[in-house]
Amino acid sequence: MKKQKIVVIGAVAGGATSASQIRRLDSDSDIIIYEKDRHMSFANCGLPYYLGNIVTSRDQLLPLTPDTFYDKKQITVKLQHEVTGVDTDTQVITVKNHQTGEVIKDTYDTLILSPGARARQLDFNVPHLFTLRNMEDTDKIESYITSHNVKNALIVGAGYISLEVLENLYHRGISPTLIHRSETVNKLMDQDLNDVIFSELDARHIPYRLNEEIKTIEGHTVTFTSGITETYDMIIAGVGVLPNSEFLHTSDIHRDENGYIPVNARFQTNIENIYAVGDIVTHHYRHVDLPAHVPLAWGAHRGASIIAEQIAGNQDVIFKGYLGSSIVKFFDYTLASTGISPTELDHFDYEMVEVMNGTHAGYYPNNSQIRLRAYYDKHTRQLLRAAAVGKAGVDKRIDVLSMAMTYNATIDDLTEFEVAYAPPYSHPKDLINMLGYKARP
After folding, report:
1. Which residues are catalytic?
2. pLDDT tens, 124-149?
3. CB of 54 within 8 A of CB of 8?
């Protein structure tokens, strides 16, 4: 293997994992990572749970530092170093050191882009308005809660991050209120299955309003578009993300109309020696011919492994596409789905089949209901999408259906799923089997 200089932009999931996997396969090449923030490889998905004191130690979210990473992998990580430009002709990047203000140039043989995405900001400049995207955001929120003795908070947006933040603040003893600008919440789920979100809010007397937005903020007083005025100690907004790709605007690297980077099955951009991974990339679904943008953890880690294999010369290891599997816990319920999104079903002539049953044998204690559904093509009977909601056993059903879709299973194939059955776990004919039986012509 030829020794080369590999530069990685971004030191969180996609970037740090790419570098680590490359080192596993390549002991000789020089690897350097530039990260514009103050931390590397933090557990992004754990941030809401740290704010809720479920994760009790901040150190649990920060398994690596540049020093420990270098000691273990001989990979150099430079924090607070922001790449501000890429010259693809000369293979030179421009880097700003935010600690000193110095601007430097560096060269690469292979470049890996993992700059991620940033939180979309509300257009208000007040000190108690926050977003949650990285460790710095988390520290600011935690500091504000403790120093200002926060008692209540407004949560803006109803995606999975907002829902997780709301639940964790509630567990911490902070009274939340939820608003969302439309009636479409937790958009990766079927909207009727999201009814449990509102029942859980109602059960805890947590206020929420849909079709609502902030009009003005004066001090801690918020006036809404509905005309309602309320006061909050803190506001946390989760209203979407924007790709961190502006620094590429003078390069020859292709971006789509939204600023994301299309990649091929090797996670290569349009330039052969430049790869991209993580929230920044778009690809396609594995089981159907549709484009897909799936900014979740599995895709970043899988992409990192494939990039490493490619750089090591293992050309046969390629990416076959996303399934878009996602899951969120909201108080007592779990909501999960896999396959294309609800809106993408419009591309198909499809049927839906649904079962509702206990997660395990009815006579075994502590049973609870699962509502499980699958969508399939009317003509080919191929599985397109599945979704489930319940208090237990949701994840394993969606995981099984995800594996079924991975290998282009039909709805009829589900009758042949052999469940690991005992009364505490399932039924002799599992809910997944029943989907297949109910869909028989």
Report:
1. 45
2. 999 999 999 999 999 999 999 999 99
3. no
